[in-house]
Amino acid sequence: MGILEKIAEIEKEISRTQKNKATEYHLGLLKAKLAKYRAQLLEPSKSAGVKGEGFDVMKSGDARVALIGFPSVGKSTFLSLMTSTASEAASYEFTTLTCIPGVIEYKGANIQLLDLPGIIEGAAQGKGRGRQVIAVARTADVVIMMLDATKGDVQRELLEKELESVGIRLNRRKPNIYFKPKKGGGLSYNSTVPLTQCSEKLVQLILHEYKIFNAEVLFREDCSPDDFIDVIVGNRVYMPCLYVYNKVDQISIEEVDRLARQPNSVVISCGMKLNLDYLLEMLWEYLALICIYTKKRGERPDFNDAIIMRRGATVEHVCHSIHRTLASQFKYALVWGTSTKYSPQRVGLTHIMEHEDVIQIVKK
């Protein structure tokens, strides 16, 4: 019996099991088995066949965005509109067969946009080069999920399911669970909040499924068994996702209004070039990038060449991005902008910068 059949059997078992207090241990065990088999499915086979052409593209720019969606939803058209790269677009499915990179220049940042081939149902099992597509998506900072507005929410649910089964968690935080396997001493289980979905017995059963008998587990929030399994497996990617509904010029205004009000969603039309500027603004927000300008002593700030950092970056990060030896010679910095109480303010290495701050670094 192959792994795919085992997965199908477990999924069938889960779907026909009623959810109640008596079956929660059984369901927890099944979910743990399912996660284990899916992890085996993603591992490359030992008997490697002929090495195919590489799929991934070298990371460049300040951030990386992957375009994921079913065939013929307008990914290539979107790439051609947003960047100077021309990706072939035609009215038949699977026009794009490999990964095509482009660069969006926005607010002084270079954002790498990857046009990936269309995903079909069953991609997580490797159908239609699905595994390679999803592997590239795992390396991105943000996923843009292109959806056809005329098809309703069907595509969104299918794609979410495919990405969920390969360990990509969209618009979710990492569960706040401390987990550490030990050499001996059994299981020490604790929680700082009342748990409604997990119990010590269930945690023990799940750990036994992974052949872990000695571990330290501390729940800092009320998590589900699925979240706990994610923590044990440890190779899950938590990333922000923007749901972009294309072809809104073909549906009614009420439907456009409904789609636009959904969380993390943007409606656009590549054919009529509608709402693309708002999509860029949202993308900037999701990437959590900030621009920092530098200033030499006695001169005006250089507003043409910004340093692009992540939100939450400190003065030390800025020093490293300018030159790796700068932090060791650092004396103090003067900062103008919204992160300070008064301008300029003398700050140390731990000061957190904000968008469009100006910094002058003084060396020893």
TrEMBL record:
Location of the TGS domain: 288-363
GO term, biological process aspect, one: cytoplasmic translation
Any one GO cellular component localisation term in the record: cytoplasm
Domain of life, per lineage: Eukaryota
UniProt keyword Transport present: no
Alphabetical keyword list: GTP-binding, Nucleotide-binding
UniProt cross-references to Pfam families, sorted A to Z: MMR_HSR1, MMR_HSR1_Xtn, TGS
GO terms assigned for molecular function: GTP binding; GTPase activity
Family annotation (InterPro entries): Beta-grasp_dom_sf (IPR012675), DRG (IPR045001), G_OBG (IPR031167), GTP-bd (IPR006073), GTP-binding_2 (IPR031662), GTP1-OBG_CS (IPR006074), P-loop_NTPase (IPR027417), Small_GTP-bd (IPR005225)
Keyword Kinase part of the UniProt annotation: no
Domain OBG-type G: 63-288
Stored NCBIfam families: small_GTP
Quaternary structure (record): Interacts with RWDD1; this interaction confers protection to polyubiquitination and proteolytic degradation. Interacts with JMJD7; this interaction is direct.
PANTHER family on file: DEVELOPMENTALLY-REGULATED GTP-BINDING PROTEIN 2
Summary of the function given for this chain in its UniProt record: Catalyzes the conversion of GTP to GDP through hydrolysis of the gamma-phosphate bond in GTP.
Protein name: Developmentally-regulated GTP-binding protein 2
